[in-house]
What we know:
Blueprint: E1 2-9, H1 15-25, E2 32-36, H2 45-51, E3 63-67, H3 72-83, E4 87-91, H4 98-109, E5 114-124, H5 128-134, H6 136-144, E6 148-152, H7 159-172, E7 177-179, H8 188-196, H9 199-219, H10 291-294, E8 296-302, H11 308-318, E9 325-334, E10 340-346, E11 349-355, E12 361-368, H12 372-378
Parallel strand pairs: 1-4, 1-5, 2-3, 2-4, 5-6, 6-7
Antiparallel strand pairs: 8-12, 9-10, 9-12, 10-11
Helix pairs in contact: 1-8, 3-4, 4-9, 5-6
Amino acid sequence: MTTIDIISGFLGAGKTTLIKKLIAEAFSGQKLVLIENEFGEIGIDGGFLKDAGIEITEINSGCICCSLVGDFGQALRQVLEQYHPDRILIEPSGVGKLSDVAKAVGQVASETNMKLVNTITVVNAKKCKAYMRNFGEFFNDQVEHAGAVILSRTQDMDAKKLQETVELIRKENPKAIIVTTPWDSLSGGQILSAMTGGVSLAEELMAQLQAEHDHNHEDGHCCHDHDHDHEDGHCCHDHDHDHEDGHCCHDHDHDHEDGHCCHDHDHEHEHEHSYDETGVCSCGHHHSHDADEIFTSWGMETPRQFTEAEIKTALDALDSGAYGTVLRSKGIVPCVDGTWLHFDMVPGEIEIRRGAPDYTGRLCVIGSQLKEADVQTLFCL
């Protein structure tokens, strides 16, 4: 029996860091497959995993990594038939909905020799309040459907703020295990044990899928995600989601003329996909959105060499709000001194470090209403 863990989390939460820790400390001796599904055309996380000594695209020391393309069910079945892994780790896109991924996995698992055992969401504890408010349709879905919520960056918070974050999560998901201890203080085995404590939600999902399957076959209703009408007026699409997505990445109390902010205050913004009290979107539909309706990804491959100062200047500029609402930037690029620079940025947090080379330089910026041409100019490309 192959077990499946889904490790979700909003942009920049720390999914890849957690996966590296689990692979190094908790999954020793297991044959693993890691399936990534990044938003945008330029995949960066595979390079970060390779830098950690995890070989990509082929089995090596029991682990492979592949990008998810095409039909999800077909991809899972192919992985099972080709590699017969002990465990499959699925890392969805940071703007993906955990409910959608879990349903897809559960459907395939019910028809194969696989079992979904863990649905995990990694949450940047410092950004939780703002992301819930501004990207609730995507962020809250990940929290609501997690068997365990693993908080990152808790070492940077005082006890009161951390407790407020826990309470916000608990309102959305009263059943989940919540990990609040800084990861450096925990072993991978301890985190895995906490993850497994939330397995009941995965089991509930499987039972729900089975019940829906039985019901829909009895009454002829369709529960697939496509656009059509039914003569009896019944449809099983999930359309009633309220959210506020004025796209602010922090928490403060004031308004901005353009509706965008990248600092810590408490305020509300309006956006072209705002909702009224009935759940009807301002675009005129009563529905949930796909990620590509709300978020934009710019990415590029380049052999250009950068200085660390150039990367720092570019990331500071992205964090200023002048290029749209930037939620995540990451990259692996050659440095003028012969080394390679690996960088990550979420609002208010920038990390630049030296790392292993890649086959070429790659950069990616993800956000809302990005000024893509200006972003490309910012990196002198």
